[in-house]
Request: fold
Amino acid sequence: MEQNYSVLMSVYEKEKPEYLKEAIESMLNQTICTNDFVLVCDGPLTPKLDFVIHVISEQYPGLFQIVRLKKNRGLGTALNIGLKKCKNELVARMDSDDVSLPYRCELQLKEFNKNSKLAFCSGDIAEFMTDAKVIQSIRHVPVQYKEILLFAKKRNPMNHMAVMLKKSAVTAVGGYVEINFAEDYYLWVRMLKKGYEAANIGEILVNVRIGNGMYKRRGGMKYAKNICILQKKMLELHFINYAQFVINCFIRIGGSIIPRRIRQYLYESRLRRI
Reply:
């Protein structure tokens, strides 16, 4: 059984030190441990964030690769740079403010060992406001490959912060492309279009912090514009047809301009469930 994998995380100056520490430790405490942790500092960090990184990396000599960018380049660019540094073919993505469950990577490694054609694998996430033990909602994603293909035409079929992927497959399609709020979705679409297989595990893999303005960020015309840019790219790839393009843009523009409280209600009652 293949057990070697890299962890890829990006952090920037606005992250809270205690969140970063918790996120890193959750990946260090996996039932199958990583032998390569790539942490991309996307621009200069605060002294407190630097201190967290210094202390933890000193505790695990030889494990961490700390990549420091001179200025903030954005998530997609930071991940592309970090991906090149990863030593292993399998790479576990992790956000700097979430908490992976201890068995997350073990379950994903089993999936890759069962299916040699598998290129990326994610799972469900549990969303919380401030306390990871108090779950507000769960984002379920389709499990089977054919279900993922159909779902991807309407919504993001993978949970990015819970994905494990093959470095070679991501590189083959050109890596991440900067589209605010949708770098991951566009990557999945291009991988699926190229015939790479995907799977999701029907279990919660990561506890995700949403008490950081998630519903606010998913509103406004800027958000709607970026999502419609993604939809146009999906149309140009012939991943969706024109009717699907119009419907998807209509739904997303509508969801972006409604009041935040209504948007939050729709997310929690229609798009999420316990």
In short: Residues 221-236 form the longest helix (16 residues). Residues 41 and 61 are 18 Å apart (CA to CA).
